[in-house]
Amino acid sequence: LDEPLQKTFCFPPVKEWDISQDIDHILETQSALAVDLGGTNLRVAIVSMRGKMVKKYTQANPRTYETRMELILKMCTEAVIDAVHLNCRILGVGVSTGGRVNPQEGVILHSTKLIQEWSSIDIRTPISDALHLPVWVDNDGNCAALAEKKFGHGKGVENFVTIITGTGIGGGIIQHNELIHGSTFCAAELGHIMVSLDGPECMCGSRGCIEAYASGMALQKEAKRLHDEELLEVEGMVDLKKAESVSAIHLINAARLGNRKAEAVLRTAGMALGVGIVNILHMVNPSLVILSGVLAAHYQAPVQQVIGQRALTSAQNIQVLTSDLEEPALLGAASMVLDYTTRR
Ligand code: ADP
Ligand code: BMX
Ligand code: MG
Ligand code: CA
After folding, report:
1. CA 181, CA 103: separation in Å to the nearest integer?
2. Cα of 114 to ligand 2 centre, how many Å?
3. Can you give the pLDDT at residue 344?
């Protein structure tokens, strides 16, 4: 070709299209708003498709319906505004909450005293009306199980159970790769497995539930009792002036430093949780149990020990792991949004 023709017909080389960069961009920017309502805290987070917690907001969970609803909407609105600046496209809102939840209707059917004024509540309508986004809801323990399945130790595991310790004890059961909800959305209320005929009073109105022995609240109650009797402090422990700030963590520290009373409380708690878990193994026979929440690492060894002593031979070989997720309930709330909005 002569030169003018060559100029006409020879295009500059087309830049190769790198699809992986586009996918990266989508995974970074497509996000969910996650809400988690617990016995103590109300959390909201912007979570990316990869499960990255882009930004997190924490407040005390208010005690009345009106103040709680108001705060949820305020925190969500703030997060939606922040998401714009953070270059996150919010696809929807996922809500994790204590209580029995009907996920199809977006309704909290019933709550124990752990969350007051939180029964027969349509949580979907006010949030979707205010934010103009689709809303998914499920129980917090169930959400924790979804998070383990998508991002945690439960990836690719067909049958597993998760127990999350916060103020109370939540549970989630994955059976044949699906969450089980039961006939009235009360399946996997694992905190209310009873391990004694009497035992300590539980926030649910019954007695002897594993939540009444081993939850953050149960241990805090015992820590306060020991503190009031001046039996908690041991040498090497930081000064505990105010009884209000005494928590489960102080009980664990005291036990580590050799406080026999604190050790006894924790032994009973670990035993109760372990026996509760043995009951779960005999009921649904999972291959894995994942413990999460602040107390998870502390409970792993005692639970393993009780399984060794009390489970049937066929249920002995299951694994007990501590979760490596930062906030399983929030991540699971986000996963409902990310999975449904991207499903084809
Ligand atoms: P919830 O979901 O029930 O609102 P969280 O999962 O935030 O609560 O856990 C709060 C519970 O865990 C409280 O009962 C508190 O005693 C205990 N807890 C959490 N973090 C700490 C900590 N750093 N030190 C002591 N206790 C803690
Ligand atoms: C209670 C119960 C469960 C919940 C669990 C963990 C209510 C309000 N809560 O057993 O539904 O999963 O607490 O909740 O009925 P958290 O407060 O410890 O996160
Ligand atoms: Mg919680
Ligand atoms: Ca549950």
Report:
1. 9
2. 7
3. 62
Cβ 191 under 6 angstroms from ligand 1: no
- Contacts for 289 with CB less than 8 Å, ≥ 6 apart: 160, 161, 162, 163, 277, 280, 281, 303, 318, 319, 320, 321
Residue corresponding to tokens 């309502």: 37
Q: Which residue type occupies 226? A: L
Q: Is 48 in the pocket of ligand 1 (CB under 6 A)?
A: no
- Tokens representing 173 are 């059961």
Q: Which atom of ligand 1 is nearest to the CA of 217?
A: 14
- The ranges of the chain with pLDDT < 50 are none
Pocket of ligand 2 (CB under 6 A): 38-39, 98-99, 111-112, 114-115, 139-141, 166-170, 189, 191, 211
ipTM above threshold 0.90:
yes
Q: How many Å apart are CA 211 and CA 272, to the nearest integer?
A: 9
Q: How many whole angstroms separate alpha carbon 216 and alpha carbon 16?
A: 55
CA 35/CA 126 separation, integer angstroms = 14
Residue-wise pLDDT for 246-264, tens only, equals 999 999 999 999 999 999 9
**Burial status of residue 169 (CB atoms within 10 A of its CB: 0-12, 13-18, 19 or more):** buried
Q: Is 152 in the pocket of ligand 1 (CB under 6 A)?
A: no
Residue 103, judged by CB atoms within 10 A of its CB (0-12, 13-18, 19+), counts as middle
pTM above 0.90, yes or no: yes
Residue 165's region, left for phi above 0, alpha for psi from -120 to 50, else beta, is beta
Q: Which residues pair with 231 in a beta bridge?
A: none
Q: Is there an atom of ligand 1 within 6 Å of 162 CB?
A: no
Of the candidates 50, 55, 140, the one whose C-alpha atom is nearest the C-alpha of residue 94 is 140
Q: How far apart are CA 79 and CA 321, in angstroms?
A: 33
Which strand (E) or helix (H) includes residue 305? helix 296-310
Residues in the chain: 344
